[in-house]
Amino acid sequence: MGRAGILLPVLWKHLIKKPFTVLYPSEKLTLPEGYRGILVHDKDACIGCGICAKFCSAEAIELVDDREQKPLGNGKIRKNVPVFFLERCMRCGQCVESCPKNAIKLQKKVGLVAYQKEDMTVE
Amino acid sequence: MIDAVLAVFYLLVFPGFVFLGVYALLCEWIDRKAYARMQHRIGPPWFQPLADLIKLLAKEDVIPKNAERSLFQYAPPVALAAAAAPIINIPIWGTQALYSFQGDLLVILYMLSIPTLALFIIGWASGSIYPLVGSMRAVTMLFSYEVPMILACLSAGILSGSWSTSDITAHMATHPLEMLVLIPGFVVALFALQAKLERTPFDIPHAETEIVGGTLTECSGKKLAVMRLTGDILMLVGATLFAAIFLGGFVLQNGSFIFSGYDVTPLTNFGFYLIKTLLIVFILATIKTLFARLRIDQMVNFSWKYLALAGVFQLFIALGFVSGVKGVA
Amino acid sequence: MPKVRIPVGPQHPAFKEPMRVDLTVDGELVVEADVIISYTHRGIEKAAETRSYVKDLYLVERVCGICSHSHTTCFCQAVEEILDIEVPPRALYLRSLVGELERIQSHLLWVGVAGHELGWDTLLMYSWRDRERVMDMLELISGNRMNYAMNTIGGVRRDIEEEQLHDLKNGLSFLKERANYYIHLFTEEESFLKRTKGVGYLPTTLAKRLCAVGPTVRASNVKMDVRADDPYAAYAELEFDVITTNTCDVWGRTYVKIMEILQSIRICNQILDDLPAGELRVKAPVKIPEGEAVSRYEAPRGELIYYVKSNGTDKPERVKIRTPTLANWLVTVEMLKGVYIADVPIVVDAIDPCIACCARMLSCNATTTPVTSVDLTALRQSRRNEQVME
């Protein structure tokens, strides 16, 4: 058999404590280092190999023709560049891991909101 | 002529519908804010109950095909009227209510149980299975908590020697120490009020996780707004009644307060009214946060084993006090 | 009173995911119950066959949100068994660490949901507030609060740094204090005891015969835990107790879960103290040779079984998932007979149903149920045509 109303002293203590809720976005969240946030692509380092598109599980990366036709160091020209559709990205980080040139990073940022679909596309 | 205008003012504005509506929404806000703060959350802003009411009034009113239209539509206003009516019998700014007579304590208790019957009718006339189960549970609960509540209130009447709420308040104002005799009755009455309002641990008729919305599942729009307001006004009127008879009414013993030459006694009495009713609302909110929901058979068990016995015990104490102490003195 | 049939679900505040329990009641007493699942069938097993193993890692993680790490680990273990490679010990320890933190998080979530089913919202708020601490620890380790993506075939993908050990240890001691408080609460609070003692009785013989798994069966005095019976990852080197109790009711299942939180904290402390140095992963080929493997894992809800069959390409031939909730439905139907309507949510919730996990197939009778199927592309096109015409 137990006692009823065990929570009573705890309840009254909570009346004077500050609430646990974080009033986002007026108060900021503290994100740890290494948080997998919004994707960012370094286009200058990219060689257009397409490994990221091959391994993306959410099929958020598509290879399109490179308009710049940027020359790579060894005489070849970069033919394709990836385009990232952030509304499909699930930030698993497989592209970060697979990229041989470390051109993709998941930065420590939240808040992926846009009015236009173009704002959610990263080149 | 003046009497007629004054009567209309009393009925509609103060302490009638407008005052009850505003103060009931304020009590609902205090209840929700205290509930949230005790759970370490922030809680709603002050205008939330008003916003909920306005939003519900603007929603579409859907009536199921199997429902009995007339019963379903006219039960909520009856419940609202019955919950709001007793305020004229309870003294708010002194020892004299607007309209008091011998036996108005029983009339108040009777009027306060009409909303439960209206809830039963709404559940029965809804034509759906969840409200039916909810209304069965509501009536089962009615049989369990009415008796302890009436016993507790009658003990207060016996102690004061009258069945009129105003006389009880006047008696308590002149003999404040007798409030201590009524403490078991006060506890019983608070639990019975929690059961009448269908709040945890007694929110069995509209147990959200068991029977969706319970009795009020099929109500929407204006009907739901009226039923929610009825619940709030019922809480307010119940708190007013118990503050009047158990917490010693709303006067101090020594008559009047004079403040820079004016007699502000009605204002200070009204201030006491606000303080005491808010105290009761806060206690009800604490009870709501503390316990898990009971099952219907456990609730009936609890009522008849503990609450009813405590009520009878309180009755004997009151009788003993009246005949023993007062007989001697 | 005549017998009434009450459908609970598929949209019901009691169940957090769509499922249906058809109750036949007599007054307030449940006479018969029937469970219909598969409202959340997503076709994951078929989708796994059309994606490569690397992509499947993240698909399988999303079978369930709460026990996501269990699914990836089990899948990786099956594929690693086909490949016959040995995962480095540091990776095994890190897998166990995230698995145990996930178990703590899942059990705290369950405590909150049980409180909500009983109408005790205060417990919901408090336990989910404490759960935030576990989520912060997991965010520190893996970069995300849910769907940790820690595993890869051949090891783990992320490491923990020295500075993070201090935060993790502090978090574990906070959780231990809170778990002890919950034990005190559940053994003493009268209204909780009244609602859970003697409710949903499951005798030991019935539990064994109907093959229940997880804390449900451990509360009926059957000592069954994959971590102890068939150790995987780092559990062969770790010390912990398998918690059983003999009350066979909902209170027993609550007790088992809270004590398991304490055991998980004990395991995590051991892991953080004895973490071996070394590599995080071994290289695994993209094309997996032919073979098949079965791997088992103790998810927070019970025993999780994966069967993976490979055929030499980079896509699996068959991935079969048997989640613990699927194994517990038979005993739920038995437990629901003879309880009150008011107890139905807590009895169903005591097996900790993760309904999204368990929907594996949809059965319909082609002769009696009219079945139409529409291609998604055609549906999209018809909606676009409607919009153009408006």
Structural notes for this entry:
Chain A is of the alpha+beta class and 123 residues long. Chain A has helices at residues 8-16, 51-55, 94-98; strands at 39-41, 61-65, 80-85, 104-106, 121-122. Chain A is built from 3 helices and 5 strands, in the order H-E-H-E-E-H-E-E. By secondary structure, chain B is an all-alpha fold. In chain B, a hairpin with a 2-residue loop joins strand 1 (258-259) and strand 2 (262-263). Chain B has one domain. Chain B has a two-stranded antiparallel sheet with strand order 1-2. Chain C has helices at 44-49, 53-61, 68-83, 89-117, 121-142, 162-188, 190-196, 204-209, 215-218, 226-229, 250-273, 324-335, 344-350, 355-358, 376-389; strands at residues 4-8, 20-26, 29-36, 151-152, 155-156, 291-299, 302-310, 316-322. Helices cover 49% and strands 13% of the residues of chain C. In chain C, a hairpin with a 2-residue loop joins strand 6 and strand 7. Classes of the chains: A alpha+beta (123), B mainly alpha (329), C alpha+beta (390). The B-C interface holds B 38-41, 129-130, 133, 200-201, 203-204, 207-212, 289-298 and C 4, 6, 12-14, 28, 115-123, 125-126, 129, 189, 191-192, 194-195, 340-345.
Feature tags:
heterotrimer, A: 123 residues, alpha+beta, Alpha-Beta Plaits, 5 strands, 15% helix, B: 329 residues, mainly alpha, 2 strands
Write a brief caption for the model.
Chain A has 123 residues and is an alpha+beta fold. Chain A has three helices and five strands; from the N terminus they run αβαββαββ.
Q: Which chain pair has the greatest contact?
A: B-C, 27 and 29 residues
Q: How large is the radius of gyration of chain B?
A: 20 Å
Helix/strand-derived category of chain B reads mainly alpha
Under the CATH scheme, which class of chain C? Mainly Alpha
Order of helices and strands of chain B: HHHHHHHHHEEHH
Question: Secondary-structure map with pairings?
Answer:
The complex is a heterotrimer of chains A (123), B (329) and C (390).
Chain A: H1 8-16, E1 39-41, H2 51-55, E2 61-65, E3 80-85, H3 94-98, E4 104-106, E5 121-122
Antiparallel strand pairs in A: 1-4, 2-3, 3-5
Chain B: H1 2-12, H2 17-38, H3 48-57, H4 69-84, H5 104-125, H6 129-160, H7 165-174, H8 183-196, H9 222-245, E1 258-259, E2 262-263, H10 265-290, H11 296-328
Helix pairs in contact in B: 2-9, 2-10, 3-9, 4-5, 4-9, 5-6, 6-7, 6-8, 6-11, 8-9, 8-11, 9-10
Chain C: E1 4-8, E2 20-26, E3 29-36, H1 44-49, H2 53-61, H3 68-83, H4 89-117, H5 121-142, E4 151-152, E5 155-156, H6 162-188, H7 190-196, H8 204-209, H9 215-218, H10 226-229, H11 250-273, E6 291-299, E7 302-310, E8 316-322, H12 324-335, H13 344-350, H14 355-358, H15 376-389
Antiparallel strand pairs in C: 1-2, 2-3, 4-5, 6-7, 7-8
Helix pairs in contact in C: 2-3, 3-4, 4-5, 4-11, 4-13, 5-6, 6-11
